[in-house]
């Protein structure tokens, strides 16, 4: 929900030299004299020099270099990527798990910064910023009007740790103009969305990424749940695209017995490294369920593969993404970086779960459409597996390689074709935006509602449902929702609970109807 945005290469020849000379030479140099001549590198350097010096028009050679680097990497595999210097900060902060700011979730709503909610116990919360407040200026710098950009907002709301920013705030609920001073502090970007004990006694942990703080957050959450004497653990890795492998390995140390294989990596030279569990014994005996879907990738698949191959728990959901490549981040010297694939990884049974990318990146990225076309999202027997890629788990069960982790317990994305589209719609930002808009109209009323009253308000009649359909149509989005009214209403209730109360209230409500949780219950 939070929206965060960040905004010359001094010499293009130098940049290409760093890329094609510095990195590739260090990676592939085989000479004995210490001298290496790469004619292709020189050719590219000269081309950029000629364009800068001789071309008839002025050309943005920065963008040429960016496109050249991207094109080179695209010839390798779908996961070797270029990160431009203006994007690197946001990527780095996401993986580091924090940034310095004032601690709000906001929309740029009707030409002003509108606070959705502030982060609990964060700087804005402590300073008295409230949901629905409009931030009109920061230290006298205007933050409203059509000319304001996301970069401008970030520039003035963020800053050095411990510095103050004076905000001009309009509070719609009381029709007040206020000046509020907020002290900027590190704001965590959490890996663990929520961790709580469900009503049936199970523990539930929802993990959205694998950043540098993930294991620390996971262990804290698991410790809390163990103290509450949970009967089993549900680890939700749905839509988790991965991140740092070592964080997944640390988590598996707590879930597997000592000495059990976690993962094996093999690099270009054929050197293999086998990681085994250290066996910390934190949660190794009670039932474990790992939830995955078509967007669970990379480190998520390392966890699912290790749990499945060691027969430690049950994998529930739909076939995972299928990313079995390991990347290393390398700086290019000008503030930009590349993530280069340097190894493949294999699950404990020896499976590579990397799906094929021989047909090109476009086809690779359209895999979801292919799964939909073949009915895989709706029926387990539509999952394509290769009999030639059979492997055995620790206890002798058959599992398959060649394109993701196939779950032990399959759960359809919906009861009928088209449900997937509605689910994706209801998980999109359009729902959050609509709910904020509805709250903004009558915030005083909603602030008096209990959780039960919110549920009643949305579910008991079609008033909110019809307003949502009208909102979609106003944005040129036309869906036939009448036959899926109950699904839509449940998601709307969840978003109201999230914005009015907490993420725990959201998950408590949504998990009650979650088909994967219901599948576990039926076991």
TrEMBL record:
One Gene Ontology molecular-function label: serine-type peptidase activity
Cite a GO CC annotation.
Answer: outer membrane-bounded periplasmic space
Domain Tail specific protease: where? 175-360
Q: Name one Pfam family in it.
A: Peptidase_S41
InterPro entries per record: ClpP/crotonase-like_dom_sf, PDZ, PDZ_sf, Peptidase_S41A, Tail-specific_protease
Database matches in SMART domains: PDZ, TSPc
Listed A to Z, the keywords are:
Hydrolase, Protease, Serine protease
Q: Which residues form the PDZ domain?
A: 98-173
Q: Name one GO biological process term.
A: signal transduction
The family this protein is said to belong to: Belongs to the peptidase S41A family.
Name used for this protein in its record: Peptidase S41
User: Which species is this UniProt entry from?
Assistant: Myroides marinus
